[in-house]
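Entry type: protein chain
Record version: 2
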Amino acid sequence: MSIKKFFQIFGLVILISPLAQAENERKLVIDDFNITEHNTRVKGKKFSYTAQTGTQPVWDEEGNAIASLFYTYYQRSDIKDNSKRPLLISFNGGPGSASVWMHVAYTGPKVLNVDDEGYPLQPYGVKPNDYSILDVADIVFVNPANTGYSRVLPDKEGKMPSKDKLKKTFFGVNADVKYLADWITTFVTRNNRWRSPKYLIGESYGTTRVSGLALELQNRQWMYLNGVILVSPTDIGIKRDGPVKAANRLPYFTAAAWYHKALPKALQQKDLAEILPEVEAFTINRYIPALAKGGFIGDQEKQEIAEQVSYYSGLSVDEVIKNNLDVEASYFWKELLRDRKQTIGRLDSRYLGIDEKVSGSRPDYYAELTSWLHSFTPAINYYLREELEYKTDIKYNMFGNVHPWERTKNRTGENLRLAMAQNPYLNVMIQAGYYDGATNYFDAKYTMWQLDPSGLMQDRLSFKGYRSGHMMYLRKEDLKLANQDIRDFMQATLPDKQTAAKY
């Protein structure tokens, strides 16, 4: 046997040996962290901060690690007493989405390399966020199970849980809230933040998550919050089927059509802020009652409503009537600019797309999401590895495998209301983009109204609208404004030493 052949065979034996296999397996370190030091400037003021990237386990009732969640934790370095400094705990949505979106585009110290309207620029990467809230609050970005670098772990025998087990433990409205509340408690304990004012922020499905967490943390972990921020909220379990669901789309239709200069001249020459109150009033006072009549609406009223919906949406009267006054959002995205041979985006209707065919009832793809994945994916992979020095061969899941997701018994909105009722310190702010067609801004207002049927907590609920879409912070002007709104919200909800939690 030749020496060359010997070493080929010997090398093969090494490669297939258990030790060699273990060394080359792509596994996440279950409980570990790395800290880097940085400097930044926010609103013209320089300061230093640390970035802690790492993993922290999720344990079962027997104390066994069943998952490990990846997080990034930013702390301002010059704060000696963090008992007065807010801690903002940040979640994105999906479900199945990583925390990447708000991490490197909204509140964190770095933002995407995009133009002022949010469109990707090359080279891909990040730049300093001049408007980050890190000047006034520390932030932890949490990736739920199977998102980002977070992973569900095999059992002692090396077997992964069944889909049914995964659904009961992680992948469902209530399971998600339960294990994340426990994880947050461990994080707060490990990092000595029990005395700090605490805030939750969630985007999209993340609003369902943080709404549920508010009560779960309060009633199961005895952790009381100062505020919850809902960014582009889902329905959080608040029903709006039938006429309400259909009619609530119209103000968004108006906003999107106005942006694309597709409204009648009389409306188009007005500012958006002047138009929206008008269409909102029509929606509540005339459109919902008309849709409630269904097929028994009178011909004259049907014609009048169709003409008004056409006027406010940029669609033809004929198209509105052919849809029985109920125009689906997907049809609107296809129809609004059909004569220009363009479609508009779902999550942000400022974005334009082109389809194989001008005909059809919905777009071939969502133009905004392709743009975002275009820029976010390389940026987060670069940023975590090169600037925050977190090294792993685990794939960063922009969208992880978390399905099927258990959506029954969603009472997260009611739970948030109950948490507010029990905790006089707890305030809620809603942020929404006018051009978001997936979780439209008028639905967000409706959610706010239904959160407090009694009207006794109105002073603790607020709404902020922006001239952008689902991720309103991608637009530079709204990045500045929305972060300042968070600052103001925190300032307003931090009671002085003499203000006790009581009614």
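Comment: Residues 243-367 form one domain.
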